[in-house]
Amino acid sequence: MLAAALLVLGIALGALITMATYATELRRIARFLQAREPRSNARATTAVGVPGIRDLADAVNTELDRSSRERVDAQRHQDEFQRDLSALSHDIRTPLTGAKGYLQLAYDETDASTRQLHLAAATSRIDSTTALLDELFAYTKSTDPDLTLNMQPVALRPLIERVLVGHYPEFEKRGWEPELCMPDEAPGRDLVVLADPDALARILENLVTNAVRHGSGAPRVLVQLTSRGEASVTVENPVASTASIDTARLFDRFYQADSARHAAGSGLGLAVSANLAHAMGMELTAHLSDAAPRSLSITLTCPR
């Protein structure tokens, strides 16, 4: 009987010690979490290898690591946003300052023909600002999670032809002859994709505009059928150099290659295209070729 009593007492004492150890470790972890600074890299530790407590400490540290990564990413995005905002403010302010200067010159000018030249220059700069604001509005709209899309069958050939014809004056000025290649499997106007007509038109317009602004030769639009039965539209244009183009950032907001810093545009067009493509379940990718002639290809893959 005495042995049994001692056994029970030993078990009870062991249980009490274990419970006390658990309570002590839990309180220590709780105090650690309460005292830990949000930006601290401190990690939870345990003084004993009690089953469950070490697992808890590991789980706490995993969550702290995840929170730290999210904080770093949020700060990086905030820094990028501030830089983008500063760049946007500069892009808006510069043409407006120029317009104001030309308006002042026109106000002071007595010669009618010279006054008209100053007014035309002021109008051109105001138009540049308007175009930038339009692109900013389009970008904001494309990021709206509640964006309404009217998905329907859309014929590719007439849409692409309409976009190319809209740039005819620019092609003619440069002496370029754009090329449109359609697949043999879909002659004429039969090849259709499932898309919102306005959104798809905006994407193609932005791709061709990018080719006109930053290409060194006439663009080539190649339409193909993929092995999965999807349609891909590739806008390919020669470029003077591929060194300054980062395809990993090409669809980022406000991204412009170094060689395009002084060209027209805000760096929003391709970001808008990527957002609209994602909203329609499409994929937009970019590829650089260093083989002569050097070229940039942007491909839109569309469901049918």
From TrEMBL:
Keywords: ATP-binding, Kinase, Nucleotide-binding, Transferase, Two-component regulatory system. Coiled coil: none annotated. The keyword Transferase applies. InterPro entries: BphY/WalK/GraS-like, HATPase_C_sf, HATPase_dom, His_kinase_dom, HisK_dim/P_dom, HisK_dim/P_sf. Residues 87-304 form the Histidine kinase domain. GO terms for cellular component: plasma membrane. Its main location: membrane. It holds the Pfam family HATPase_c. Its EC number is 2.7.13.3. It catalyses: ATP + protein L-histidine = ADP + protein N-phospho-L-histidine. GO terms for biological process: osmosensory signaling via phosphorelay pathway. It is found in: Cell membrane. GO terms for molecular function: ATP binding; phosphorelay response regulator activity; phosphorelay sensor kinase activity; protein kinase activator activity. This is Sensor-like histidine kinase SenX3. The lineage of its organism: Bacteria, Bacillati, Actinomycetota, Coriobacteriia, Coriobacteriales.
